[in-house]
């Protein structure tokens, strides 16, 4: 039977990649941490870390143990949180992940209302265009722009929106408005770059709008982040397609209003193990109410 204290030390060292940093977090000396790791390795009969001048790297056996220990500790932390939460108002940390664009431009300006309603909840926003693993508790819940593939997740559609065509007033003053899709051939276009997976399918539909019998238009600028595309459009660099929630009231002019992307669904997603969490429930209800109110 593996010792729980040693597994806790192992988990912290694996996360920190350093005996010193792990010891600081655990309140132990570096030598005490080193002894715990050595004893655990001796009991298992295999090294768990490669020792390098730059720090510690898990061995293959260490990686296998870490995955299991990480899952166990995550489940224990979640269970403790749910037990405590069941006796009180919603409280504790709630880690929410969503895209950089949605989080920065729609969610963050409204967060103060949620924190005023539920001051006992400590909100931790993780803005990333990469999908975090909710099953491994990288976050508690997520707002995603694609249907989740993991079978152990609960998801509900919270809003449907479209991308429209926009430019800054300064751009329109210099270059005029395109009156037809074909006019886009003579304009400067901003597109999503190919270096990253796009957050929604066919994100660069503007490059093909009105194009027949030839290759898509070449953009003036490519950026692998929708928030960056928004900032570039705001600076007057060119024409861009953006979600409604980013552009309608933020000093951009909508162009070719008869043309839009296909509808895009946004989902609220969380682990099935959190189905009874009051924190998740009140945050989901808050999102739905604000999205309905804003008619995104």
Topology:
Elements: H1 4-16, H2 19-26, H3 30-44, E1 49-52, E2 55-58, H4 60-85, E3 92-98, H5 100-107, H6 111-117, E4 121-127, E5 141-144, E6 153-161, E7 163-167, H7 169-175, E8 190-192, E9 221-223, H8 226-234, E10 240-243, H9 244-247, E11 253-255, E12 264-271, H10 278-294
Number of DSSP E strands: 12
General form: elongated
- Percent of residues in beta strands: 15-25%
Query: Would you tell me the structural class of the helices and strands?
Result: alpha/beta
Distance between the termini: 54 Å
Number of helices: 10
H and E order: HHHEEHEHHEEEEHEEHEHEEH
Radius of gyration over all CA atoms, rounded: 24 Å
Low-confidence stretches: none
Order of strands, main sheet, comes to 4-3-5-12-6
Mind summarizing the main beta sheet?
5 strands, mixed
Helix content: 25-40%
Query: Mean of the pLDDT scores?
Result: 86
Label this structure with key terms.
296 residues; alpha/beta; five-stranded mixed β-sheet; three-stranded antiparallel β-sheet; 10 helices; 12 strands
């Amino acid at each position: 039977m593996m010792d729980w204290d040693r597994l806790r030390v192992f988990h912290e060292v694996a996360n920190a990649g350093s005996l010193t940093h792990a010891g600081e977090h655990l309140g132990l000396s570096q030598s005490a941490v080193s002894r715990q790791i050595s004893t655990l390795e001796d009991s298992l009969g295999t090294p768990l870390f490669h020792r390098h001048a730059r720090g510690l790297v898990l061995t293959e056996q260490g990686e296998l143990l870490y995955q299991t220990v990480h899952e166990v500790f995550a489940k224990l932390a979640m269970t403790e949180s749910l037990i405590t939460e069941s006796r009180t108002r919603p409280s504790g940390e709630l880690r929410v992940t969503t895209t950089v664009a949605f989080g920065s431009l729609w969610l963050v300006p409204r967060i103060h209302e949620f924190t005023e309603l539920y001051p006992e909840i400590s909100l931790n926003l993780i803005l990333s265009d990469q999908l975090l693993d909710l099953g491994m508790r990288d976050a508690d819940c997520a707002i995603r722009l694609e249907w989740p593939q993991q079978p152990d997740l609960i998801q509900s559609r919270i809003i449907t929106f479209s991308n429209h065509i926009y430019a800054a007033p300064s751009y329109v003053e210099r270059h005029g408005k395109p009156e037809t899709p074909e006019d886009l051939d003579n304009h400067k276009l901003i597109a999503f770059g190919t270096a990253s997976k796009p957050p929604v399918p066919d994100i660069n539909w503007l490059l093909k709008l009105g194009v027949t019998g030839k290759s898509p238009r070449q953009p003036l600028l490519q950026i692998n982040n929708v928030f960056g595309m928004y900032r570039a459009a705001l600076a007057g660099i060119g024409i861009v397609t953006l979600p409604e929630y980013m552009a309608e009231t933020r000093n951009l002019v909508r162009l070719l209003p008869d043309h839009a992307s296909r509808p895009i669904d946004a989902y609220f997603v969380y682990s099935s193990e959190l189905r009874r969490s009051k924190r998740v429930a009140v945050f989901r209800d808050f999102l739905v109410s604000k999205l309905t109110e804003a008619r995104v």
